[in-house]
Specification:
The complex is a heterotetramer of chains A (128), B (139), C (234) and D (598). Chain A has 128 residues and is mostly helical. Helix content of chain A is 75%, strand content 0%. Chain A has four helices and no strands. Chain B has a single domain, classed as 3 helical TM bundles of succinate and fumarate reductases, CATH 1.20.1300.10. Classes of the chains: A mainly alpha (128), B mainly alpha (139), C alpha+beta (234), D alpha/beta (598).
Amino acid sequence: MQLPDAIKEKPGRNYETIAWKWMRYSALLLIPLVWGHVLLQDILVGVHRIDLNYVALRWASLGWRIYDVLLLGFAFAHGVNGLRQVALDYIHNPRARRGVEWGLLIFWLLITGIGAAAIIGGVSALPE
Amino acid sequence: MAHLKTPLQGYLGYRGREGQTAFLLHRISGIGTALFLTIHILDTALVYFYPGLYEEAIGIYRTTLFGIAELFLVFLVIYHGINGLRIAGFDLFVPQRWNIPTARGSFRLTLILTLLLWLPAAAVMLYNLLHHNFGLFGG
Amino acid sequence: MRLTLKIFRYDPNTSAGPHYDRFQVEADPNDRVLDLLEAVRGDQDDTLSFRRSCAHGVCGSDAMRINGLNALACKVLVKDLNSDTIQIEPLLGLRVEKDLIVDMEPFFAHYRSILPYLINDEPLPEDGKERLQSEAERERFDDTTKCILCAACTTSCPSFWADGQTIGPAAIVNAHRFIFDSRDRGRLKRLKILAGQAGVWRCRTAFNCTEACPRDIHITRAIAEVKQEILKHS
Amino acid sequence: MDTLHTYDVLVIGGGGAGLMAALHAAPRARTAVISKLYPLRSHTGAAQGGIGAALGNVEEDRWEWHAYDTVKGSDYLGDQDAIDFMCKEAVQSVYDLEHFGLPFSRTPDGRIAQRPFGGHTNNETGKPVRRSCYAADRTGHMILQTLYQQCIKNEITFYDEFQVVDLLLVDGRAAGVVAVELASGELHTFRARAVIFATGGHGRMWEITSNAYSFTGDGPAVLLRRGLPVEDMEFFQFHPTGIYKLGILITEAVRGEGGILLNSKGERFMEKYAPKIKDLASRDVVSRAIYLETRAGNDINGQRYMLLDVRPETVNRYAALDGRTRPDGSPYVVSAEEILSKIPDIADFCRTYLGVDPVKQPIPIQPTAHYAMGGIPTSIRGEVLADETGRVVPGLYAAGECACVSVHGANRLGTNSLVDLIVFGKHAGLNAADFAASADLPPLPENPQAFAGHQLAALRGGSGKERAAQIGREMRALMFDEVGVFRTEQGLEKAVETLQDLRRRFTDIRVGDAGKAYNTALLNAWELGNLLDLALVTARAALARRESRGAHARDDYPARDDQNWLKHSLAWLDEAGQVHLKYKPVTITHYTPKERTY
């Protein structure tokens, strides 16, 4: 149903709307990525067979590095935004909220940076 | 955190139905996964920054306690995914189908699917755990 | 049958904190919980305070938590509860003023914030008669016109429990009533308000609102329809 | 918080009439609404069926027909100039509501939908006419919501949960009111140039009632205590179809959609009492028919109730027998879904309170106390009248159910309560604002809170020998038995005597709650005092009126007596508890009284 609108004031681009969409669309990508990762690492391979050699072997393939970069980027951003939404539920003081949002932004960039460095840098030294 | 009193009272004391359970599980699984993910990124990053420590970190994951926690983690990850799909599906594609029967039913379906996916995974993981940590099954 | 009512008590003018009082009442299975409260106040303890007016579920005065669930005391019958102890508490998330009476002002402030009135500055029909609206256009927002603003939904919403700034289901329902009214011209304004931090995105589809609504409004659905409308315009 | 407030116009009551008055006064006068409930809790919201107005959207109709039906419905006791005014104004008022945003149900061509309703006829054919404009079966809810929405839009000032307990008069002129703030228990004085009472009805004095707990006649009782009269109190409408035992209303619209009343023999007994429009006869006629059927032993299981059958097979059978057609001329045939879509709330009440699905089982019903035709005497302009000569109390207005213009006379026609509060609410608001614009601010009397404070103190300081709840129960049972659908000299004498005794016993109650915040026990006790006063006046006025007219049906005087009783009663209550009655003539313009048949 198309309604004429006298007031052309659109809700427009708005951070919460974008964040909401982000959670849904990133999830679409994340479900195959995360489940694939869990299936492979936790179930098929298992933590007892994972070691530096395994990681080195895995990251020898560019395909797996891209997979892991995507996983890192999407999963962590999805997770940090989720944490932000949860935190804002319980923290109401505007200054505290700003603090949390900045804190999480820095946290997100830092951890993502560390993770990205590792994936790009790879295993720096294999055991003898 | 005086602000937590009311929501906690509600989460624990309000007799919500499937939807409230779904929300609480989604939130718990989300927070849990996000926190684990942070640790997981950091420990994996050791391979580049402090490769010597990596094996020690992995060692912790191999303990029985972590093995059991891992079982739960996988459950939560599967649940979070399916429940997220459920919610997004209704919100984005069939909002007019959001009603009490579909909400209750779709949550039950979500739990069943989660269990169906988790049980075989749990069996394999439990096998690995028993095999490596307790020497069962010819370990 | 004999029942025990376990009722939340709080009086701001005495130093004692909140507590529960127990009352024994004689009840018929067809009695409303409101009838039992009236019996307690009339014959046992007239310091018990609660709101009520129409006593048949249309005025929205007596929303409260009955055995842990939001409902109108005049729409819950003893036989529906299936228990010989009935626990009665005030709505959660609004300040208790006395016993079962909560401060409704924050709730109504959220209601007012979504511009709950027809906005249309276009000239009226020249014959002075009604603006036309088809049956289908009228039907489009019928469900959300039923709201009586009893607050059962908003005070069952986990997002509202966590943050009283959340606009909450009732206000969104009333926004929906105008957003989808073909005669209204203010919907983009309302959508802008509802797209904000305290608006529809706070809905986590916990469904407590829909389950609690004494008017059987499809609240979560209405919220989802507003979400879609915002997405369409952003 | 400051406890002295000054406004140009004060509106007491936040229901349909009060909000309408506030909306029309506010543009020209500093206006505040004082309401003991949140306005959206008002009983206007419970009105179901519709609002009558001769829009003629689905078939030919004229406001003059509406006026005649109202006069006839009133059993010729309604003032015909007021009725003409109301029915003419109703048309524009309904359009106004639509322009305010009220979501009326619609006709296929997009106009406001209309349906038949008890007592509304095509004057030429005598058949039911579709005059009731509706929004499903929650028209009152929509009116209340829409008016409140407009009040928000227009930033009207509200004092919510303030119970007005006294009217201040200075030299016979309204000067303000005194109110209790429920949250704090504090008394507040409101000073004003004009005061409009719109406090609603007093149906809580009867045991079986469709009325809200809050319908305790506060406005009329406050004015009585200040020496002003009430009018036509003996006329109180019993709606024929209340849910058995609970009294919750089942709207006439159920019969408008084809529902049929049946007795224990399965007979459609209304054929006997109103051969022409049968189940859609005026309310007093149907209520009395149910009573007479009960007395003849035709009640269901000997339990004093009848059945209202709206199952599609029943509706269709009788519609075929009546030759009822749709507007396009096709035979009237309905499905269960169609019925449910027209009466969703009624279906919900039946399921919740009776466990009955109305399209599968008939609904057990009995007459229920419903509407006060009597109340504060007012002029067409909404001004409160001080005596039988029509002397106006300057600055004092009343509208809605608490007022008696009188447009309902001895019996109100269905839908006309909403018409009344819209039309007279609006005009009371406009006229009060006019008055305030030209009047100075009256001085406050010395110690303005004294009388109110004294009344409340008495409730707390009694001997405690009596319990308010018990007195309330006795009053309601007495009123239902002796001052109900049918009345006798003996019963009324007993009622007057017992009520005087109950009023004496009332002075011995003591409210146990000594607290300030939301002391509902104190205010409920005060409300019970109002009901006792009005009950006494009602019984006394009923005892005096030795005829049967409209809702006032005397077993011992079964006929209408225009010779002696074509007049309005005015009642004063003195401090000694004695009722003084005077009478004033009915305004008759062009409809001469004749026998009333349906």
